[in-house]
Design goal:
Shape: globular
Structural class: alpha+beta
Oligomer: single chain
Distance between the termini: 30 Å
Radius of gyration: 25 Å
Largest sheet: 11 strands, mixed
Number of strands: 26
Length: 602
C-alpha cells in the first residue's frame, strides 16, 4: 500500500506535557504535513493542571504549547497547516484567549476554535445521584462526600471535525481521547459518517500509534540497539487515507526507526483486550495488519471497526490525602539486616507504623560482593507513609528519619534532604451516559452544541458476542504447543527473543510482549500463560491477571489488576506508572528453545 495523493499527513509533536519543546518546529519545517497535532494530557497531568489553576485561576492549560505556537504558527498559516491539540487542558477557553493575544501581538490572523463539554467537575454530585459513578474495575460507587479535583469525560473527534469545517486554523480542546486529534481531522477531510466504523477504527489505530510521539519511531524500544540516531529520535507522521488505512513514517533525515517492531510496541501500549474503545468507534486490535512498505514506512491495514461502547469514560481525581518518603542508602555488609533494624527504629521513634493510614517499605539490595567501587556496594531502603493528616506525614516523619543519622547503622546517609508532606490524588475511572455530556464548539461568537452520542446505535457488551464476524482471538491451546517437545533449551533472558512495552491503566498495569517470527510466537503463546506470568512477575502472584493473545501482531497482552493501587500520584511503587515492568519481565531467565535462539542470531 502506498499513501495516495489524497492522504492526509498528520504529524504529532508531543506525547506528554514536558515532551521535546522544539518538536513542533521540527515537524513543521521538516517536510510537508497537513495537520499538526499535540497530545499533552494524561490522568496525572489533569491533577498537575489543577494545581496550576489553583495558583492562577486563568490558567489550567498547557503553557508550553503557547511557546511552540509562537515558533510555528506563522509558518502553519502560510502553508495551510491546521493545528489540533488537547493543550486546552482544564481551560480550553483560556488557551484560546491566550492564543488570540499571541497572534495579535505577532501580527497574524488566525481563526481559533475551542471544544468544551468534557468538564463534569461541578456536576459530580448530580451524576453520582444518577448512576453512583461506579469504579470501572471494582464496581464500587464513588464514596459519598468526595470533593473532586477534576472530573472529565473523554470526548471523541466530532467537535474537532466541526471546528475544522468552520475553517479553524487552530483547534484546542479539553479532555478528548488521545486519538481524537487524529480521528477528528479524518472525519473532516474524508466526510466519514458515524456508521463508517472501519474507517473510523483505522483512524483510531493510527492515532493510538502516533499519540505518544517518539514511542513509535524508536523511543523506549526494547531492541534499542537497532535504532539509529537514538540521540535525537524524530517524531511520527500518519499518512491517513480515505479508507482508514495509514502509513506510519517520519521526516527524512531524522533519527529513530519506523518498523513493524516499533509500531507493534506502541500498539500494545496501555491497552487491554482485543477491543479498543473510543467514543466514536471500537477498533478490533486483532484485525490489524502491519507490513514494512519501505525504510521508515509501515502500512497499517485491515482494521475492523464496531460501534462505540454504550457509555463514556470519565476520569475523576480527588484528594486522597498526603504522603512523604525517605530513601536511605545502606552500604556494604549485612545490608538486609541493617534495613530491617533501621526501619524498626524509625517506627519506634514515631510511635508505631499503625498510626498511618498506609505505609510502604521497599528494600532494593543492589550491593555487590567484593565491590570494585564505593557505589557498587550501595543498596537503597525507601519508606513511604500516607495519611489524611498532613502534619502526621510531614516534617515530623522526615525529622524522625534524620535523627537516626548518627545513631544507627554505619555509613548512614539519604538520597535527598528531608521534605514536608505533599498532597496526592486518587484516580477514579468511571463512566457517564452519552446523553449526559454535550460538546460545545466555539469560534469567535459562533457556538454549536454537538450531542456526544452520534446518530448510530451504541451497543452493549452483550450485543457484541465474544468474537463476531469470524475475527479470531486465539488462546494458547490453539497453537498446540503448550505440551509439544521443543528440543534443547537454554536458560536465557526472555528479552533475547521477545520485546515488551508496559504502562499504566489507572491502578492497573499492562505488559505487551511480542516476537518477530511465527515460530517464536508459537512457542511464546504456549509458554507464557497467566500462571507463568505470575511466576515471572512476583508482584502479580496474588493479583488478577488477564491474558489476551493477538496473533496478528505475534503478541500477548497482559493486564495486571490493582498492581498500581489507586493509580496516578497515589501509588507507592518506585515505578508508579509501570513503565519498567516490561523490561523486568524481559530480564527473567526462562528455558528458550535453542533453535529459536540460533534463528535470531543467524
Amino acid at each position: 500500500m502506498t499513501a495516495g495523493a489524497n492522504a492526509l499527513r498528520i504529524a504529532n509533536c508531543s506525547g506528554f506535557y514536558g515532551d521535546r519543546l522544539d518538536a513542533a518546529r521540527e515537524m513543521v519545517e521538516g517536510g510537508p504535513i497537513d495537520i499538526l497535532t499535540g497530545d499533552y494530557l494524561a490522568e496525572l497531568t489533569m491533577a498537575i493542571l489543577w494545581r496550576l489553576r489553583r495558583r492562577d485561576p486563568e490558567g489550567g492549560y498547557v503553557r508550553t504549547f503557547l511557546t511552540q505556537m509562537e515558533e510555528v504558527l506563522g509558518t502553519c498559516l502560510d502553508r495551510g497547516i491546521r493545528v489540533v491539540s488537547n493543550a486546552g487542558g482544564l481551560n480550553p477557553a483560556g488557551m484560546a484567549k491566550r492564543l488570540g493575544e499571541m497572534t495579535e501581538r505577532l501580527g497574524l490572523e488566525a481563526r481559533i476554535a475551542w471544544v468544551t463539554g468534557d468538564d463534569l467537575t461541578e456536576r459530580v454530585g448530580e451524576l453520582q445521584q444518577l448512576n453512583s459513578l461506579r469504579h470501572f474495575d471494582t464496581g464500587r460507587p464513588l464514596p459519598s462526600g468526595v470533593t473532586p479535583l477534576t472530573a472529565h469525560a473523554y470526548l471523541g473527534g466530532r467537535g474537532i471535525a466541526e471546528a475544522l469545517s468552520w475553517g479553524a486554523d487552530v483547534v484546542v480542546t479539553g479532555r478528548v481521547t488521545d486519538a481524537a486529534v487524529v480521528i477528528g481531522p479524518g472525519m473532516w477531510a474524508f466526510g466519514w459518517s458515524p456508521e463508517d466504523h472501519d474507517q473510523l477504527a483505522g483512524a483510531l489505530v493510527a492515532g493510538h500509534i502516533i499519540e505518544c510521539g517518539a514511542q513509535c519511531t524508536g523511543g523506549n524500544y526494547a531492541f534499542f540497539e537497532r535504532v539509529p540516531g537514538s540521540d535525537r529520535v524524530g517524531f511520527p507522521i500518519a499518512e491517513l487515507s480515505p479508507d482508514g488505512s495509514a502509513v506510519i513514517t517520519k521526516h527524512p533525515g531524522t533519527g529513530g526507526l519506523v518498523s513493524v517492531g516499533t509500531v507493534t510496541a506502541q500498539l500494545l501500549y496501555e491497552v487491554c483486550g482485543p477491543r479498543y474503545h473510543n467514543p466514536d468507534v471500537t477498533a478490533r486490535l486483532d484485525s490489524i495488519q502491519l507490513s514494512q512498505e519501505g525504510p521508515d514506512r509501515v502500512a497499517v491495514t485491515g482494521v475492523r471497526g464496531e460501534p462505540p461502547p454504550p457509555t463514556l469514560k470519565v476520569a475523576l481525581n480527588y484528594l486522597g490525602g498526603y504522603r512523604n518518603s525517605v530513601t536511605m542508602v545502606i552500604t556494604g555488609l549485612d545490608a538486609e539486616h541493617k534495613a530491617e533494624s533501621v526501619t524498626a527504629a524509625l517506627w519506634e521513634s514515631l510511635g508505631g507504623a499503625g498510626q498511618f493510614e498506609e505505609t510502604a517499605v521497599s528494600f532494593t539490595d543492589t550491593g555487590h560482593a567484593d565491590p570494585a567501587t564505593n557505589e557498587a556496594a550501595m543498596s537503597h531502603l525507601r519508606i513511604t507513609v500516607k495519611d489524611p493528616d498532613p502534619e502526621k506525614v510531614g516534617k515530623r516523619f522526615s525529622r524522625a528519619a534524620v535523627e537516626l543519622a548518627l545513631a544507627h547503622y554505619p555509613g548512614f546517609f539519604m538520597t535527598a534532604p528531608p521534605r514536608d508532606s505533599s498532597p496526592y490524588a486518587v484516580y477514579w475511572p468511571t463512566s457517564a451516559e452519552p446523553s449526559q455530556v454535550v460538546q460545545q464548539v466555539r469560534m469567535g461568537d459562533r457556538v454549536k452544541e454537538i450531542p456526544t452520542s452520534p446518530p448510530t446505535e451504541r451497543v452493549t457488551a452483550d450485543d457484541w458476542g465474544e468474537y463476531p464476524d469470524g475475527v479470531p482471538s486465539p488462546a494458547a491451546d490453539d497453537f498446540g504447543l503448550a505440551s509439544r517437545e521443543t528440543g534443547d533449551t537454554a536458560m536465557v533472558p526472555l528479552g533475547r527473543i521477545a520485546g515488551a512495552r508496559s504502562g499504566d491503566k489507572g491502578g492497573d498495569a499492562n505488559v505487551g510482549v511480542w516476537v518477530e517470527s511465527e515460530e517464536a510466537f508459537g512457542w511464546l503463546a504456549g509458554f507464557l500463560s497467566e500462571s507463568r506470568f505470575r511466576e515471572l512477575v512476583s508482584e502479580a502472584a496474588d493479583l488478577e491477571v488477564e491474558r489476551h493473545v493477538l496473533a496478528n501482531l505475534r503478541a500477548i497482552n497482559f493486564v495486571v489488576r490493582g498492581l498500581l493501587g489507586e493509580g496516578v500520584s497515589s501509588s507507592t511503587r518506585t515505578d508508579p506508572q509501570a513503565k519498567s515492568l516490561g523490561e523486568y519481565l524481559r530480564a527473567r531467565l526462562v528455558p528458550i528453545p535453542v533453535t529459536l535462539l540460533d534463528a535470531r542470531s543467524a
